[in-house]
Design goal:
The complex is a heterodimer of chains A (691) and B (182). Chain A is an alpha+beta fold and 691 residues long. Chain A has an eight-stranded mixed sheet with strand order 28-29-31-30-32-33-34-35, with helices on both faces. A four-stranded antiparallel sheet of chain A has the order 1-2-3-4, with no helix packed on it. Chain A is globular, with a radius of gyration of 27 Å. Helices cover 25% and strands 37% of the residues of chain B. Chain B is built from five helices and eleven strands; from the N terminus they run H-E-H-E-E-E-E-E-E-E-E-E-H-H-E-H. In chain B, strands 1, 3, 4, 6, 7 and 8 form a six-stranded mixed sheet that branches. In chain B, strands 2, 5, 9, 10 and 11 form a five-stranded mixed sheet that branches. The chains are: A alpha+beta (691), B alpha/beta (182). Chains A and B meet through helix 10 of A and strand 9, strand 10, helix 3 and helix 5 of B.
């Protein structure tokens, strides 16, 4: 009773002062209203895919007449998710669906649209041929390049056809054009910008070598290049007018740059474009496939595209001015370049789609990626360029809780990897949830992250618990020197889970709690947590990330350093995780328990390395994380005019999860406790309503 | 005569070894009273499966087999006394298929006398949900779970019998766990 009165006083006080609305987990983790939009080559039909009340639906809009036709609508409980959509030509497209826990989990569908007096008519057929589309060939009617696997038991045997789409529906390729130059060693095929199969590749796991082949004008496969993809990047883009191949690579440079590649001598030639500080992420040819039109990169975590053509660069600048403080990219464009779909996004905007009509010189808003989020004000992320003690620059992202709701807690959130992944300045569900609950969040592109050159990435190799955590600490020190916090906690997943634990072990004076999610905690175990990981090539791959297999790795393993952990720890894990084996989390929990440390754990029954598409367990985890931090740091409830209602819902969610063997496992005591707290919150809400 | 006795003895040995000995898991009550001798040790492993398993096959000093009681096993532990020597998992039989242990990976282990030998968790995992007969068999190191199982179900045996890791690869965790002091 006293607790309720105390909470009531706090909340009444806060309600009077603050009109802030807490973001609801149900809405934050709801399926997108628009997950994909594609314009057909002619530019007169718009294909949209999204979810309404969790049910997948696909619609086609005739832009000129405004007529909308429904192409696909999942029934209640069918649990379809969209995997991909692509136009085959002006009036047909292929989409792929996924159904969790269904026998035929992936399914592909062909949709043909025909015009009639009453508008568009739809004919949907299930694609029975086993395989995938190599190129949709949008310039050729009803035709695709298709890689067909006749036997489900042998995916090394492939037949490639340039085929009518009805042939892949019927799984009958009689009369279709067969590609006669299948390379037995190759596993993947690619077309050039003109739709001709031009490249193939394979990865040799024993030699850790990727080979690209090029089909010359005599239809002979020539070795294009061989390289170690764990060390270098090499990505063919397409043939240039001078006969050279455009590639993005860092084989001859620290930064990934756009180069010419000589097919005859197989040498990397001159630089077409290189950024001063960042890796190039992508390059695009123009619509006719003749010339490189644009390059893209991340600058301060924001997606940037630069055009070589002056007029297009002017238009690019116009869009940048229109969408000030946001990022955009062109999702699809009509063949005549008169219409395009733009996706606009930022750290506060999950996504918004626009139709650009060049003739009318107009931008038409099509809709938001997730309509339910439009009612909320999200918090912008600041990009920081921090100078480390060693003199190099570290890019970091700081999302600060508004002063009127801040609980004076900094959450340091190391990203996973650690070699290759990176942070971006874009909408992040976990960050926005935590910030709306009053926490400030710091994310760091430490050494090992992609985007800043090969040296920067390679510096992180074998530096678990060392250089990487030094970089993170440089960023934390910067934040602490500029902002006041009562507490700092570390929270991360995968490598981030490991790093969170190590940060608290290495800096017991800084951290007050740890949330270690789906993590790795015993470094030697990475090499042999199961017999299938002990193959030579797997050891080579892991040693490029963790360092050489050696008992020395125990010195940087939280399991063996657990006596130095002096703060509360929450461990979450997926029981089906084989990437960061479930055993890591249980070892860490076991040792912390033996040492009588303050540790809680949640093991999600059907989660692997993350929750996958399971929103319920993802919500459960986030809600529990907030509660864990508040209990351990003795924080007040979050501030907002709907706090009681939101907390009641979250407590109920947590209670249900602990009463479900298929989610967090059955723990009647914990479940009952959260149920009681949900009831208390509901009583509080009712009391507030009467005031 | 001497040759005849030798022949009968060898036949007897072949007969004994070709017959598979069915493993019966010990419960806490029986393990508390059990004592191995110099020619036997304890085999400890678990079975985790996404499909029904009719039988687990182990070849070695003697042939062993284990038939789980339930389908869709979840980390069911098997502790049994077996003769010392070398063994290896050879595969499992589901309701419809024989799934052989992939010879590219390690499946063998050595049973020491007077010791609880944890050899790993045998996992039968689905490769793809759309494929009924696409499974992969793996042997995972889940030592911490094995320790917890012994502590909760066979604490008396654990108190008097050393526990060692005998699964794939080298791992010191079990030894380390025994040195943890408050």
């Amino acid at each position: 009773m006293k607790t309720i009165i105390w909470m009531l006083i706090c909340l009444v006080f806060s309600q009077k002062l603050y009109a802030q609305k807490l973001v609801s987990l149900d809405e934050l983790l709801s399926k997108d209203s628009i997950s994909k939009i594609e314009l057909n080559p002619k530019g007169d039909l718009l294909l949209t895919a999204g979810y309404t009340k969790n049910r997948l639906q696909l619609n086609v809009l005739d832009i000129d007449t405004g007529k909308l036709i429904n192409v696909f609508q999942a029934k209640q409980g069918e649990k379809y998710s969209l995997s991909s959509i692509a136009w085959v030509d002006n009036d047909s497209f292929i989409f792929r669906t996924y159904r969790r826990s269904q026998k035929n989990t992936y399914a592909s569908w062909l949709v043909d649209l025909t015009s009639s007096d009453n508008g568009l008519r739809v004919n949907t057929s299930r694609i029975h041929a086993r395989g995938h589309v190599i190129d949709h060939l949008p310039d050729e009617k009803d035709t695709v390049w298709f890689a067909y696997y006749p036997k489900s038991s042998n995916y090394k045997k492939v037949k490639i056809y340039k085929t009518h789409t009805q042939a892949i529906v019927r799984e009958n390729f009689k009369g279709q054009h067969k590609f006669d130059y299948v390379k037995s060693a190759a596993s993947r095929y690619f077309t050039d910008p003109k739709g001709k199969i031009r490249f193939s590749s394979k990865f040799d796991k024993d030699d850790l070598e990727r080979t690209y082949w090029y089909l010359d004008n005599n239809n002979d496969w020539q070795v294009l290049y061989q390289f170690d993809p764990y060390e270098y990047d090499f990505k063919p883009i397409g043939l240039l007018p001078n006969g050279q191949l455009a590639v993005i690579t860092n084989i001859k440079s620290d930064l990934k740059a756009l180069h010419e590649f000589d097919l005859t001598t197989q040498t990397i030639g001159k630089v077409i474009y290189q950024h001063l500080r960042y890796d190039i992420s992508g390059a695009n040819f123009d619509q006719i496939g003749e010339n490189i039109e644009s390059i893209s990169y991340y600058d301060g975590g924001e997606w940037r595209t630069e055009f070589f053509d002056e007029k297009k660069q002017q238009l690019n600048q116009q869009f940048k001015n229109t969408f000030k403080d946001q990022q955009y990219f062109v999702g699809s464009i009509s063949a005549d370049e008169q219409r395009a779909i733009l996706k606009v996004f930022s750290s506060t905007n999950k996504g918004e789609y626009f139709l650009w009509d060049k003739k009318l010189n107009k931008l038409l808003q099509l809709g938001e990626q997730n309509q339910t989020l439009s009612q909320y004000q999200f918090t912008d992320t600041q990009v920081l360029d921090i100078k480390s003690d060693e003199g190099h620059k570290i890019e970091a992202f700081y999302t600060a809780a508004a002063p009127n709701i801040s609980n004076q807690v900094l959450l340091v959130m190391p990203h996973g990897g650690p070699i290759g992944p990176r942070e971006h300045k874009r909408f992040n569900v976990s960050v926005q949830y935590l910030v709306s609950r009053g926490y400030s969040v710091l994310q760091v592109n430490y050494r090992g992250s992609d985007g800043f050159g090969k040296n920067y990435k390679d510096s992180g190799r074998g530096q678990w618990g060392r250089i990487i955590e030094k970089d993170i600490t440089s960023a934390v020190t910067f934040i602490h020197n500029n902002h006041q916090f009562n507490n700092t906690c570390a929270i991360g997943a995968s490598y981030g889970g490991y790093s969170s634990a190590m940060l608290a072990i290495l800096h017991p004076d800084i951290y007050s709690c740890v949330i270690a999610r789906f993590g790795v905690f015993d470094l030697p175990l990475i090499f042999n947590d199961r017999n299938t990981k002990m193959a030579e090539y797997m050891k080579k791959v892991w040693s490029k990330v963790v360092g050489e297999e050696s008992p020395e790795l125990k010195k940087y393993s939280p399991v063996y350093l657990a006596e130095k952990m002096h703060v509360p720890v929450l461990i979450t894990a997926g029981q089906l995780d084989t990437r960061a084996s479930f055993e890591h989390s249980n070892r860490f929990k076991y040792v912390l328990n033996k040492l009588n440390k303050d540790v809680e754990h949640i093991y999600y029954r059907y989660a692997g390395h993350g929750h996958g598409g399971n929103a319920q367990s993802a919500k459960h985890e986030l809600a529990y994380i907030d509660d864990f931090i508040r209990r351990k740091l003795v924080l007040s409830p979050p501030v907002g005019n709907n706090t009681a209602q939101i907390k009641a819902r979250e407590f109920n969610l947590i209670a249900k999860g602990f009463n479900n063997k298929d989610m967090a496992g059955v723990n009647k005591t914990i479940s009952a406790d959260f149920k009681r707290r949900a009831i208390d919150s509901t009583k509080l809400k009712e009391s507030l309503g009467k005031l | 005569m001497h040759t005849w006795f030798k022949f009968v003895f060898v036949l007897g040995c072949i007969g004994l070894t070709s017959c598979s000995h069915t493993l019966t898991p010990m419960d806490g009550a029986s393990s508390a009273k059990a004592n191995t001798n110099s020619v036997t040790g304890y085999l400890l492993f678990a079975v985790q499966s996404e499909a029904y398993i009719e039988k687990v096959n182990i070849l070695g000093a003697i042939s062993l087999s284990y038939s789980p009681n339930n389908d869709k096993q979840e980390n069911a532990y098997i502790l049994a006394e077996v003769p010392i020597g070398y063994y290896k998992f050879t595969g499992v039989k589901t309701g419809m298929y024989e799934i052989k242990a992939n010879s590219e990976h390690t499946w063998s282990f050595n049973i020491e006398s007077n010791t609880i030998n944890y050899v790993g968790n045998l996992e039968l995992l689905s490769k793809a949900k759309w494929c009924d007969n696409c499974f992969r068999l793996e042997l995972a190191n889940k030592s911490s779970f094995a320790i917890e199982y012994l502590e909760s179900t066979h604490s008396e045996l654990l108190a008097k019998t050393p526990l060692v890791y005998k699964g794939p690869g080298k791992d010191d965790f079990i030894e380390f766990s025994q040195t943890i002091n408050l």
